[in-house]
Amino acid sequence: xxxxxxxxxxxxxxxxxxxxxxxxxxxxxxxxxxxxxxxxxxxxxxxxxxxxxxxxxxxxxxxxxxxxxxxxxxxxxxxxxxxxxxxxxxxxxxxxxxxxxxxxxxxxxxxxxxx
Amino acid sequence: xxxxxxxxxxxxxxxxxxxxxxxxxxxxxxxxxxxxxxxxxxxxxxxxxxxxxxxxxxxxxxxxxxxxxxxxxxxxxxxxxxxxxxxxxxxxxxxxxxxxxxxxxxxxxxxxxxxxx
Lengths: 115, 117
Description:
The structure holds 2 protein chains of 2 kinds. Chain A is mainly β. Chain A has no helices and 11 strands. Chain A has strands at about 5, 10-15, 20-25, 30-35, 45-50, 55, 65-70, 75-80, 85-95, 105, 110-115. In chain A, the strands form 2 sheets. In chain A, strands 2, 4, 5, 6, 9, 10 and 11 form a 7-stranded mixed sheet that branches. Chain A has a 4-stranded antiparallel sheet with strand order 1-3-8-7, with no helix packed on it. In chain A, a hairpin with a 2-residue loop joins strand 5 and strand 6 (about 55). The N and C termini of chain A lie far apart (about 40 Å). By secondary structure, chain B is mainly beta. Chain B has no helices and 12 strands. Chain B has strands spanning about 5, 10-15, 20, 25, 30-40, 45-50, 60, 65-70, 75-80, 90-95, 105, 110-115. In chain B, a hairpin with a 4-residue loop joins strand 8 and strand 9 (about 75-80). The interface of A and B includes residues 42, 45, 94, 97 and 109 of A.
């Protein structure tokens, strides 16, 4: 069974730029959630994708957007980067429609630094 | 709104000591799920346990045990005979059952556990 993978591992961007982060879900999982974890904090929910549509969103501005592809992989896009966007971005996959749909399995994360 | 509080920011113990990590939650739902995750320095969140709100039975898995008390809205985690490899940040999280079918995790701020030899 293949776990959740994310790329890239680390990324350095300049304020105002745009960034795309990628996530491949665990095999058999159809739902992907994205979380932002600032230093010293717990992860904060950004949004969730199911059947290629946004299925729920946390308190993040529209410059945070995403996609889900037919193979259930996903992208997180952030436009007009700000210094406060520096964080670890975690992707989690789960299997909606099963008794274990509330169990989310996380990838290793992408560390984004905005300078 | 749901909330998870982990009052202990950092705990330091010596190997073989027992340690308990506290978690208090708030929710208006009657159906919800509670989780513990471990985050080693590598950054990946490792799933440890899930509990639903209707199951207050305590659980033991090897050196790990969990005490769920609905009356006090607490879901505490105990590591018995701690080891250096247990050093990590531990997160408690809450998920409410959503009518729309999607669920999201609300995390506490985490407790950093340092186990020294």
